[in-house]
Amino acid sequence: MSTLRAFHRVLSDHHGSGSGSDNESITQERASHDSLVEGFRNVWQSLPLATFMLGSRGEVLAANARAESLFDYEDGEMIGKPVSLLVPEFDDPRSPLWCNGFPSASPDRPSEATRRVVARRKQGTEFPAEIVVRRSSFQEDTSTLAFVEDRSDHYELVRNQQDLAHLTRVSTMGELAGSLAHELNQPLTAILSNVQAAQRFMAADPIDVAEVRDILNDIVQDDYRASEVLRRIRATVKKVDMESAPLDLATVIRDAVLLLHTDAIVRETRVALEICDDVPAVCADKVQLQQVALNLLLNAFDAMSQVVPKDRVVSVELALQSEDMARIAVRDCGHGLTVGKLDAIFKPFYTSKPHGLGLGLSISRSIVELHGGRIWAENNLDRGATFYVTLPIGSDTGNQRSRC
Amino acid sequence: MLEPETLVFVVDDDDSVRRALARLIRSAGHSVEVFASAREFLAEVDVDARPACLVLDVQLPDLDGLQLQRQLGATLPIIFLTGHGDISMTVHAMKAGATDFLTKPVRDIDLLRAIESALESANQRYANRCERDTLRQRFNRLTPREREVMALIVTGRLNKQVAGELGTAEKTIKAHRARVMTKMEVTSLAQLVHIVDRADIFSAGGTRPPA
User: Fold this and answer.
1) Residue among B16, B20, B107 minimizing CB distance to A197
2) By residue range, what is the domain housing residue B39?
3) pTM of the predicted structure, to 2 decimals
4) Which residue of B15, B24, B108 to mutate against A (max A Cβ within 10 Å)?
5) What DSSP element (H or E) covers A33?
6) Do B16 and A201 lie within an 8 Å CB cutoff?
7) Is B141 in the A-facing interface, judged by CB distances under 8 Å?
8) Cα–Cα distances in Å, from A351 out to A166, A237, A297, A336, A362?
9) Hey, which bits of chain B come out as E strands?
10) Any CB–CB contact under 8 A between A185 and chain B?
């Protein structure tokens, strides 16, 4: 019998095997062997990580106490069960965890990669987990150890952060509701007037076909325009898990500026764009970055409410900070920030506005940092302040594990 | 008098809305001119050239509809269009003389009816203005002395009293009075009083009648 098999026999047999022997030296040897085994079993049982030993068909040969409690199984109950019962991904041929002919079929697969998986308790409830599968050869045998860590807390945290971000997006949209209603009302106005004009033209003799054709084209365009407004609203308020994809920052900025189009008119504020089109894509979550852009723009609008209308200009600049960093700068012409507060403004619940929650900038900061970037504010030399956001270019967001 | 052709101006910053409104107004047989901003309108339009009304969006960049209304004064009837008119905005506009305050999207009958009545009042104003201009032209032919004399006789003073006030002979005043009547193209004092009142001559830079 192989050494590892012996280990597993030891691990799964809680009471040891008490075959009687009357030979004293054998008994002593046996005793010291037993105490070693006992010690090893204690170590195994007290490992703070759910640990499994898996057989060649992916069956559980041994599971420690933490594993049993994490998955809600009785003492020894897991032995012999397929590991895919605990982590279904072991059954998925597309997964590197796939265990058809397990584990000999995949000697070339990385043996220590951490994977995020869904784990399943005995009663069927699922929880997010991370698993490390380690294949090891010992003497003539190969065995597989799997370590499972419960990541519910981490995901809870990420989800809370996402909920909060979502909440502030919804509240931003609430503030913009009037302006957005106007954005929708414009195409509706044009459509109604066009249709009623067409009805009149159709009643005339002869019918001005060219005019009616133009009208129909305009109606189609206005319909698209209305649904585009709805798309932008929906994209902002939708509650989705964060997902990273290559993203053109210029589009993000332009979308945010379009969402604020009417709000800017009402507040008599002009937005000047200085977009450098050579900035490569960043890998980021579109909704979240748009939230940052909206936030910075709205803050800039607010900062200038006491300034005479002709001076209310926000300039948004997109440029390369270095060859691997993109930089967005949002510059206002307001009264600037108190020097001691340049950092405090990013703290949660810090607000200078009568109706603000004080979460905008703190959420913006957590979003930017989650993407491996940085956000800070500086006072301008002449007047007002500038908020800078840098984001790494390309696919490396620096914090892959935080993505889900 | 020949009815001059009326015109409807539309100022709206939204290209599509502007086009649609222009079509609708044209479909009812009116001539339309459109502008994308209040400044463009101010730069290009002579509001006195012919009877016209203005269909004006409240929310415009730069100079908004209410500001444009203030700049135009009472020169032409204004129909306001707004996406979301609150009460104070409406009251403000109406107090400043807006003909109508309509909410977008606007029904054709509402808009066209408002335009009809605005143009009617524009025609009236235009006719009044033409008349006033004619009367002013006549008034401009008077010499300063004749203007002084006219200012006094329209208050009902007799030639003798006027002569006393101006320190001259009664028969001189009589001659002035006859020339005033000829130049102003009237045959009676009553007619003269009437047109002075209509053309608002003395409040528009003429010699003020003594109190």
Assistant:
1) B20
2) 7-131
3) 0.59
4) B24
5) helix A24-46
6) no
7) no
8) 19, 23, 16, 14, 10
9) 7-11, 31-35, 52-57, 78-82, 100-103
10) yes
Instruction: Say if residues A330 and A319 touch (Cβ distance below 8 Å).
Output: no
Q: What is the mean pLDDT of residues A18-42?
A: 74
Beta bridge partners of A149: A130
* CB–CB contact B21 A193 (8 Å): yes
d(CA A151, CA A160): 14
Nearest-angstrom CA–CA distance, A202 and B129? 39
Quote the tokens at residue B107: 């029904």
| Residues of chain A contacting residue B12, judged by C-beta atoms under 8 Å apart | none
Name the domain boundary from B131, B163, B181.
Answer: B131
d(CA A200, CA A207): 9
Query: Looking at the structure, do residues B85 and B169 belong to the same domain, yes or no?
Result: no
DSSP-based three-state secondary structure for A141 = strand
- Across the interface, whether the CB atoms of A192 and B106 are under 8 A apart is answered yes
Q: Determine contact, residues A129/A149, Cβ cutoff 8 Å.
A: yes
Q: Are the beta carbons of B23 and A194 separated by less than 8 Å?
A: yes
Residue B61 at interface with chain A, using a CB cutoff of 8 Å = yes
Shared domain for B126 and B155, answered yes or no, is: no
Q: Which residues of A touch B105 (CB under 8 A)?
A: 185, 188-189, 191-193
Residue A40, pLDDT above cutoff 50: yes
Q: What average pLDDT does the structure give for chain A?
A: 82
Are the C-beta atoms of residues A387 and A325 closer than 8 Å to each other? no
- Whole-complex ipTM: 0.76
Which has the higher per-residue pLDDT, A397 or A116? A116
Q: Are B53 and B8 in contact (CB under 8 A)?
A: yes
Q: Which amino acid belongs to residue A273?
A: L
Q: How far is A384 from chain B (nearest CA, A)?
A: 22
Nearest to B108 among A186, A191, A196 (CB): A196
- Mapping DSSP onto H, E and C, the string for B101-131 reads EEECCCCHHHHHHHHHHHHHHHHHHHHHHHH
Number of domains comprising chain B: 2
Kindly state whether residues B29 and B122 are assigned to the same domain.
yes
